[in-house]
Each structure stands twice: as structure tokens, then as C-alpha cells.
Amino acid sequence: MTTVAGLPAHALLVHAIVVLAPLTALLGILCAVWPAARRRFVWLVVSFAAVNLVLTPLTTSAGEWLYNSFPTHSAILETHEERGETMIYFSIALLVMALAVAFLHVRTVRSDATPKLTAVVVTVVAVVIGVATTVQVVRIGHAGTEAKWGVISE
């Protein structure tokens, strides 16, 4: 997919990732630390993580097409492209985190008690992956914005 209605597909798809990945991370952390939220949102988090994982290679592929459509590249655009290629690993980690939270949910529902160690490990995993994913989305997006619009001064 290269264009949609004449616009580069990357410009459209990237907005889904920019919203979906941090939202999934935040909801995943919330579900890990708060059982009431887990009961309500755990399957939504798994769904969001799966959609994010599907959209990531589509977005990077569209980005590669856009990147290759220009004969020269600035250093910041190359940085954006390199960082963007790493997003697939963060998307995979986000799905792993969502599945771990779902495992915690299922285990709690089936046994009415979850070992504290399991809950702590899932919570730590959720926080680490959630924060790392959000930071990486910001880093990728910042480099892309700077490549497109230049340095924005305050």
C-alpha cells in the first residue's frame, strides 16, 4: 500500500500507531495493576495489541516506499527510518504484555486467587513494556516530525 486517496499511506497509517500503541500500553498497565479494570478491559487490550501488531509492518512498509521515493535523505530522516524499523519489536512486546495480562485475568477468574509473584511479574512486565513502547513511539514520531517540518522552537 503506497497511497490512499492520493496521500502517502504512511502519513495515514502512522496516526493509528501513534494513538493505538500508547493507548494499549496505558490500558495494559491499568489492567495489570487494577483488577476491576482488568475484568472490563483485558480483551480490549489484547485486541488493540493485535491490531497494532498488524498495522506496524503496513506502516513501516508504506514508510519505506515514501523514504525510497526521494533521491536524497537528511540525517534526521534516516534516524526516523531506523527507529521506525524497531517498532515491530515493540509491537510484539506489547502483544506479549497483553497476553500476560490476559493470562493473569484467566488465572484469577478460574481460581479466585492468583499467586502474588505472578501478579507482580505481570505488573512489572506491563509497566516496562508499556513505558518503553510509549517512549519509542515518541522518539520515532519526533524524528519523523523533525524530518518533515524541521526543528520546532518553543
From TrEMBL:
Transmembrane segments: 12-34, 41-67, 87-106, 118-138
Keyword Transmembrane: yes
Domain DUF2231: 6-149
Keyword Transmembrane: yes
Keywords: Membrane, Transmembrane, Transmembrane helix
InterPro entries reported in the protein's UniProt record: DUF2231_TM
Coiled-coil intervals: none
Name the UniProt record assigns to this protein: DUF2231 domain-containing protein
Species for this entry: Mycolicibacterium poriferae
